């Protein structure tokens, strides 16, 4: 993905893989959130918004910009990014915004339809709208706010099934810097007997999307290897699994061993082939949701009667090298 250059220096907001924020302060102010709200309202009619509790001032400023243009807000309230994406998939709303402050600096994370990452084209459209937001005329009719918190509760309810697959001979602990995720698992494991000598510890990232694990028998297990355990299970069941091009190539080898395939796609593309593969990925929630991934691992452990260590040993060793290269686009190239 290429970086946006030539932006208005009076509004130094930038869009990249980390979200939208001021490239000088690495945060976003209320006045910038107001302008961003106007920019969003001139692209979308309905916008679904979720936030961390500490970001209410930025939330209200963003909402003011959207409502003043006569567009509508679906308020998820305090939630995780995974809950927001679930709400988008349920409501089919084309735009989602999450206000994040997991690293103290406030940033706004935009989502496309069904909770996908913005395509490069969508980023360009939003970037141009941000540059010209102050020129738009405010609508005489104010937009509406719809309470969507019930959908977030539905998300939590569907993962209560994790309880029935909890291992009977191993303690489970889940850590996360996200208070909502921590509260969810504290409630989930409240009546679970967590006094076994063998223990597995899961660590969920603050955005709720990535998971790592640790147990004494096999040590640290990184996110990609946990995903491969789940992918191998799906291959064995006769399913093909869609994965982004950036995912380790070992997945293709594991798929081939089971006479199955991986559907590789570009998450930033609007190509119909890539879009169709992204839609198929919704059938495998564990690919982009930490809680779903943990639930899937428990299901596999129970069905195969194996520990997490035994499942990990079935995955071949592999290494991944990632390098970021800035691309320049020239006219008449």
In short:
By secondary structure, the chain is of the alpha/beta class. The chain has eleven helices and 13 strands.
Describe the structure.
This protein has 333 residues and is α/β, with parallel strands linked by helices. Helix content is 36%, strand content 20%. The chain has helices spanning 30-41, 56-68, 81-91, 120-131, 149-158, 179-188, 223-236, 250-257, 272-281, 290-304, 308-313; strands spanning 13-16, 19-22, 46-51, 72-78, 95-103, 105-111, 145-147, 171-176, 199-204, 211-215, 219-221, 241-244, 262-265. A 5-stranded mixed beta sheet has the order 6-5-3-4-7, sandwiched between helices. Strands 8-9-10-11 form a 4-stranded mixed beta sheet. It has a two-stranded antiparallel ribbon with strand order 1-2. Strand 1 (13-16) and strand 2 form a beta hairpin. Helix 1 packs parallel to helix 2 (56-68). The longest helix is centred in the last third of the chain and has 15 residues, at 290-304.
List the helices and strands and how they pair.
Elements (H helix, E strand, L loop, with lengths): L12 E4 L2 E4 L7 H12 L4 E6 L4 H13 L3 E7 L2 H11 L3 E9 L1 E7 L8 H12 L13 E3 L1 H10 L12 E6 L2 H10 L10 E6 L6 E5 L3 E3 L1 H14 L4 E4 L5 H8 L4 E4 L6 H10 L8 H15 L3 H6 L20
Parallel strand pairs: 3-4, 3-5, 4-7, 8-9, 12-13
Antiparallel strand pairs: 1-2, 5-6, 9-10, 10-11
Helix pairs in contact: 1-2, 1-4, 3-5, 7-10
């Amino acid at each position: 993905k290429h970086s946006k250059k030539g932006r208005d220096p009076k509004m130094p907001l930038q869009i990249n893989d980390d979200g939208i924020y001021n490239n000088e302060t690495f945060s976003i102010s209320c006045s910038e959130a107001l302008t961003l709200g106007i920019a969003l309202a001139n692209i979308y009619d309905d916008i679904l918004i979720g936030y961390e509790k500490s970001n209410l001032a930025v939330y209200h400023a963003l909402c003011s910009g959207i409502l003043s243009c006569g567009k509508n807000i679906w308020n998820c309230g305090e939630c995780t990014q995974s809950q927001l994406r679930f709400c988008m998939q349920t409501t089919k709303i084309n735009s989602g915004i999450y206000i994040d402050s997991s690293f103290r600096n406030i940033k706004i994370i935009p989502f496309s339809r069904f909770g996908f990452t913005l395509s490069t084209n969508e980023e360009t459209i939003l970037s141009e709208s941000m540059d010209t937001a102050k020129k738009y005329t405010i609508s005489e009719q104010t937009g509406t706010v719809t309470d969507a918190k019930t959908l977030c509760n539905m998300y939590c309810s569907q993962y209560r099934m994790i309880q029935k697959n909890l291992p009977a001979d191993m303690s489970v602990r889940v850590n996360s810097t996200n208070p909502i995720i921590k509260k969810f698992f504290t409630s989930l494991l409240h009546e679970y007997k967590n006094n076994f000598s063998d223990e597995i510890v899961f660590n969920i990232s603050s955005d709720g999307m990535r998971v790592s694990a640790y147990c004494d028998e096999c040590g640290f297990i990184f996110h990609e290897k946990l995903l491969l355990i789940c992918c191998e299970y799906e291959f064995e069941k006769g399913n093909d699994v869609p994965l982004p091009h950036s995912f380790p190539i070992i997945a293709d080898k594991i798929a081939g061993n089971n006479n199955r395939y991986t559907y590789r796609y570009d998450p930033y593309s609007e190509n119909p082939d890539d879009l169709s593969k992204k839609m198929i990925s919704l059938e495998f929630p564990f690919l982009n949701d930490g809680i779903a991934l943990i639930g899937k691992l428990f299901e596999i452990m129970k069905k195969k009667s194996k520990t997490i260590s035994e499942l990990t040993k079935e995955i071949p060793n592999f290494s991944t090298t990632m390098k970021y290269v800035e691309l320049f686009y020239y006219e008449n190239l």
